[in-house]
Amino acid sequence: MKNDKEFFNILDECLERILTGGETIEQCLASYPEHAAELEPLLQTALDAKETLEIAPRPEFKERARYQIFTELRDIEERKQRRFALFGWQPRWATATIAVLVLLMASGGTVAASGNSMPDQPLYPVKLTTERVRLALTPSTLGKAEYYAELVDRRVNEIVSMADKGKLKHMEKTTERLNNQLMAMTVLVGPAEGAPSVLTAPPAVPEAVPAPSEPVREAPAVLVAPEEPKPGVMMAPPPTRAGEPQKGKPEITIAPVKPVPEKAPVLAPAPAAIPKPEVEAGDGEEEDEEEILDKRARLRIILVENAKKHPEVLRAALLRAPESAKPALRRALEASNIEYEKLLQFLLEEEDKD
Amino acid sequence: MQDEESLVQRAKEHDEAALTQLYEENFDKIYRYTVLKIGDRTEAEDMTQQVFLKAFKSISGYRSKGRPFSSWLFRIAHNQVVDYWRKKSKRATVPLEETLVGSSSNPSSEAERKMDIESLVAATRRLTDMQREVISLRFAGGLSVVEVAKAMGKSEGAIKALQHSAIVSLRKIMATG
For chain B, which domains are there? Predict the structure, then answer.
């Protein structure tokens, strides 16, 4: 037994000297001539095994794997921070609790403070939650459309702010939100399949609007946004080109990359200043007809103003943005051009009818 | 060890440079270990990536207990290998010579090496679990006997004995084919 132990030690010592010390088998055998016959084949086998295993992964794989691992780690860290920012916990069932809290604190500090927060700030999730709650609690389609117009305005400002700070990830996400909210707004304002627009029809309870008791979701899910992303919205400009009149439709001069025409504001009676959209009471009582007409007119004004302002703001941001921020800005610009073009086209048609 | 401790400490605080260093120092070792255990170089690459992803995701909970960081990685790799074989046993088996096809910029040396790795992998499959683990950690993972002992929770003497018996068996298997 003692001899065995001694031999195991000698074998291991020789292995260390050969495998990591760079010595040869002969050098090691010379140190233990009495064990040479037994040691030699074992050392040779071990050396063969070691040499056979001198393999490495493909360098490009190793590099790609590293990139993927670190990207995933960063994503996890970001998600953690976001969750932490939003109370540190947020199981799904807590959404309802948050909604109640948000309502209770509606005039309170946190919600108020979150109002001006930007996507890279800790209170931003509170801002988004507040928006979702308010949307869910706005019963009328007209009210929702007005609120979407306000949200779109916010998203544009946030995208510009993030572009100026060079925060690409936040830009991407906000652009996605902008796109969803623009589409939701278009669906509400434009004529839905077989249904009249909120700008022309009496604001009856809309089919697309969920009851307040429905779970609060991301804006596009709450409304009747298309199930699949519209390929043209994010990827390509609309088929209609600037200056090309469409058959059977009134010619408009709004192009994806051109400012909104100056004649646009005449679409609706112009009040002295653009009033800020207000949330309707939502008590289910019928509103005064005059009030409804006022709201429609106000929504028209807001849409026309935004259709002019947003592309301008985004184009200005595009000019000063770093190269890395430009693709997301272009997407935001494209989305706003496409959706506003649809809206303005619709408004022009409505005006013709009037 | 002190250096590794501070490196791991920084990695636990999500220091990307420290994580990168741990990645670079250990990736090839873990890869070789998994190749020897599963005999498939492409699968071994993916598995090695998973090992690091798992390790880095849960690094904040890592406690060294006097063991090298790599022994923790080998433990994760070992568990991955066990899972791999469990899943594999439920699927159709693939001949060893097919699974050992890897990628290389030098096809001729790759062909020569393929045969070597192939027979080595086949031979180690005929060892006992303990012997195979010692050979894998020692020759593929590059751990010393002391480190293997810590990783496997055994004495140095026991590992030296296992190392000896494993090499003797390996020689016999390789000689007889």
Answer: 1-92 (1.10.1740.10), 105-177 (1.10.10.10)
